[in-house]
């Protein structure tokens, strides 16, 4: 057990209200504040930003992301440059 995480969904639960980095199929990355998720890893995010080469390309606001499009989720994002 590391940082109170015993199961995979514990990591998501600890990340609610925080910014996460998400790698999507098709080599896309987004950053957003995790608001909610379900057992299928469908996510509701706020302040969504599309990232390309560590640079913010677009601001998308609030959105729903299907779990089957996600490769990985990192609970902490790196410093990003604005476009």
Silhouette:
globular
Domain module count = 1
Indicate the mean pLDDT: 89
Head-to-tail CA distance between termini? 39 Å
Rg from alpha-carbon coordinates: 12 Å
Residues in helix, %:
under 10%
Q: Any overview of this molecule?
A:
With 83 residues, the protein is mainly β. It has a single domain (8-74), classed as SH3 type barrels, CATH 2.30.30.100. It contains one helix and five strands; from the N terminus they run αβββββ. Strand 2 (28-37) and strand 3 (43-52) form a beta hairpin. It starts with 7 loop residues before the first helix and ends in a 9-residue tail after the last strand.
List descriptors.
83 residues; SH3 type barrels; five-stranded antiparallel beta sheet; 5 strands; globular
Any chance you could write out the topology, listing elements then pairs?
Elements (H helix, E strand, L loop, with lengths): L7 H8 L3 E6 L3 E10 L5 E10 L2 E11 L4 E5 L9
Antiparallel strand pairs: 1-2, 1-5, 2-3, 3-4
At a glance:
This protein has 83 residues and is mainly beta.
